[in-house]
Structures
1.
Amino acid sequence: MDNDDINARQIKAARALLNWSQESLALASGLSVTTIRKIESGHLSPRRKTTKAILTGLKNSDIEFIDSTGVRLKKHGVEVIEGEDCYLRFLDKVYHDVKKCGGEILFMNADNSRMNRAEIDGHIRLRKCGLKHRSLMKEGNTHIVFPLSECRWIPEKYFKFGLPIIYQNKVAIYVYEKALNKDMDKIYVFNNAFLADAMKSTFEFMWDNFREPPLTTAPEVCS
C-alpha cells in the first residue's frame, strides 16, 4: 500500500493488535506521544516522513497493512536458534525486537543460577533499553539476580525446565537435548499472538497466586 493511505483508524487498530499504548508507538516510531495522539484524533495530517516512521515501527513488530482500511498481524512463523550460545543469541534477538518500544518479558520457569556473565550482561542490556522483567522461579531458589519484587516462587511440582519465555507476540521455548545436565542448545521462537496471549494469562494467574521470595543469596542484583 502507498504510505499516504495509512489512516488513524488503522494506526489505532494496529496498536490494539500489539496491545501497545500511544507511548509504545511513539517509542517504536521515534515520534512524540503528542504527535501520535493528534494523528489518531484526526487533529493532525501527518507528513510523509512521519507516516513512514509509524509504518516502519509497526511493520518491525509484525504488523501488515492490507489496503486503505485493513490491518493484521503477519502470518505466524517459527524461528529456531541453535548452538551452545543459543540463549545469548536469543537475548540479542529480543534486544533488537524491543529496543525501540520497550515492553515486558515474562519467564515462566527461571533459574538465574544457570546464567553466565555474558548472559547476565545481556539481561542488563535489555533492562537499559526499557524492557521490564518478571520471573516465576522454583520455590526455595534464592540465587536471584533481579529485584525480588520482579519474582515469584512457584511450588517445585510446577517447575519444569524448557517452558516458555513470553514477550510481545512471541513465545520462546528452550530445549535441553542433553537432559542429564540440562545443557540448553536449541530455542524455538513462535511468532503467534494468540499463543502469547494465552501464555500471558497463565503467567498472570501464577503470578497472582504465589509469593515473592524473601531474600537473595546472589552476589549481584541487576536493578
Note: The CA atoms of residues 47 and 167 lie 32 Å apart.
2.
Amino acid sequence: MSAIVIYDSQFGNTEQIAKAIGKGFGEDTKLVKVGEAKAEDIAPYHFVIIGSPTQGGRQTTAVKAFLEKIPAEALKEKRLAAFDTRFKNVFTKVFGYAAPRIEAAIKEKGGNTTAQPQGFFVKSSKGPLLDGELERATNWAKSVAAGVPTGRMQSEVQFKKKE
C-alpha cells in the first residue's frame, strides 16, 4: 500500500526519522518536506504520516499551517499517523510533545489515526538521534502498515527503563 510522509525538520533529525519511516513502508513511499506539500498531494496515498520536531511542546508553525489547510474530506478513508522528534527535559512535562497535537489536528478535521502518535528521541534539542531510533522508526512504520498496535513499542519500553 502506498504511503506519503510529510514532515518538517530543523536540524535534520526529523528528516532522518521520516526517511526511516519511509523505508518501513517500502518503495511506494513518497517523502515530502512540509513546505513543499499541498493538501491535494495526499489524495493518491493510502497512508498519510505527518511528523515534526517538538518545539515548545508543539509542532512547527509550517506543520500546523499545513494541517489547517487540509480540507476535512481529504482525510476520509486514509490511514493516518503522527510522529515527532523530542528530547526529555523539565519543560516537556509541562508543554508536551508535537505528535499528540498533530493527531488532535487530524482528528479535528475528521480523520482517524491508525496508530498512536510516536515520539523518537534526540540527545539534545539539536540532536543527534539516540542510538536505535532509526531502526525503531522503521519498525514502527512496518507495524503501522501491517495494522499492528503501536501503543508501546519494545525499544521505547527499554528506553524508559534506562532512565
Note: Strands lie at 3-7, 29-33, 47-53, 79-86, 118-121.
